[in-house]
Every structure is written in structure tokens, then in C-alpha cells.
Amino acid sequence: MTENVRGKKSVIQLQNVVKHFGENTVVNDVSLTVGQGEVAAIIGPSGAGKSTLLRCINLLERPDGGCITVGDTRINAGEEIGAKDLALLRRTAGMVFQSFNLFPHLTVLRNISLAQERTLGRRRKEADERSMALLERVGLADKAKQYPNRCSGGQQQRIAIARALALEPQVMLFDEPTSALDPELGLEVLAVMKELAIEGMTMVVVTHEMQFARDVGDHLIVMAEGAILEEGAPEDIFVAPSHERTRQFLRAVLER
Length: 256
Description:
By secondary structure, this protein is of the alpha/beta class. The protein is 38% helix and 27% strand. It has helices spanning 50-57, 83-92, 108-120, 124-137, 153-165, 183-198, 210-215, 234-239, 244-254, and strands at residues 4-5, 8-21, 24-35, 39-43, 65-70, 73-76, 93-96, 171-175, 202-206, 219-224, 227-232. The strands form 2 sheets. It has a 6-stranded mixed sheet, with helices on both faces. A hairpin with a 2-residue loop joins strand 5 (65-70) and strand 6 (73-76). The radius of gyration is 18 Å and the shape is globular. The N and C termini lie far apart (41 Å).
């Protein structure tokens, strides 16, 4: 944990993070702090670098510059990252993707338990008990013995959330978790995320769900062309954005 931010201990701190793909700068000198228990929602046009920034937080993408601190793990770009530090970082920051990334040949229960056995060293019985508790939490205890392809997209995404939670992360990262779902199924996933927010889970959410960003987010970050245009309280930005590019984006998404 680092210094206080908005009255809370910071759990995530990015300092001057840069990411290039070839000659393209996808994330350009981004600094950002997320406090404990905050929901930070990242919005912006396609190609803004939002998902790449999120993937830099748990080093699914290795940044080319800057420093990333998650919990007690600090990573400086350009320095060698030990396997122990990388494993700790990814345990600290659970991630839920646009696609569900479930193993199709394993039951729902095994999808959640296997990571606990491999990563946390839990015995199968203990892991299964934890998995069942999480499936109950996301409303899917009755799906434990089924295979993912027998579940709807919304159910699969809720299973993916349960799997990430099984490793007891300090932070949850969500990369447009409802973008592959129709609106009704997306609501199932958003309901689970709202419950996590109420329970005090620190979350960073890249989203196109403006209502979620406005109602559930504590901290709104607007990105374009790899950089942060503005950030602050969601209501303030939605009502009176300070940047013309933000105004254009909000008009486009809210008036269609």
C-alpha cells in the first residue's frame, strides 16, 4: 500500500506508464492511482488504449516505460521480473476478459477449483468447497457439474468472475466484461459486479456501459489516443466534462 488517495490507501499506482506496439504508442505516459475499495471506470473511444493499459497492470502486456505498483508488488519497466513477483502480482490482481476463457473440457466446478489447487496449493476438497461457495454467490450453484458450453454467455462470464475471486485477489480487473453479451445477459454480469463494489472490492473496469460507470464508479477515467484526457468523480464528468474530446465522446455514446 502507498500514500492516501481521495481519503483511501492506494492499491494500484501507475507512474508514467508507456506501451508501444512497433512504432505506435498505445499507452502514452499514463499516471493513475486507485484507492482501496474504489471502483475505477475507464471509458473512451475505441483504440484509446484502455484495454492495453488494463493488461499492463498485471503484466499481460509488458510496459516499455514507467512503474506499476499493485498491493505490495512494484514493477519497473525494463527491469527483470522474477517468477515469484509475477505470480504474486497476478494473484493480487484477478482479471476477467471479454471472452470467458473457460476450459471447455472441464466442468464448471473444475474450472474454478483447478486454479486454486495449482496456484494456492489447496487440496481438492477445500478448493471445491470454496468453488461452491462462490458459485452460490454468483447464483450458479446448480451449474457446478455442467460444462461451460451448456451455460449462457452471461452465466459463463459469472463463472469466470467466480474463478478470479477464488484466488482471493486484492483487486479485480475487468476488460469490457459485457461486450460479448446481449443486454439482458449483460445485466446479470453487471449485477454481480455491483455486489462486489458494495462489498468493497477494489475494481478497475474498462467498460462501454455508461450507466454502470456513472452509478457504480467512484473514479472515472476518460482516455483517448493512449492518454488520460481527464479523471474525477463520474457525476462531475458526465454533467460537465472539461475536455472537448470528452464532450464529443459522451454525446456520441449517450445520444445514439
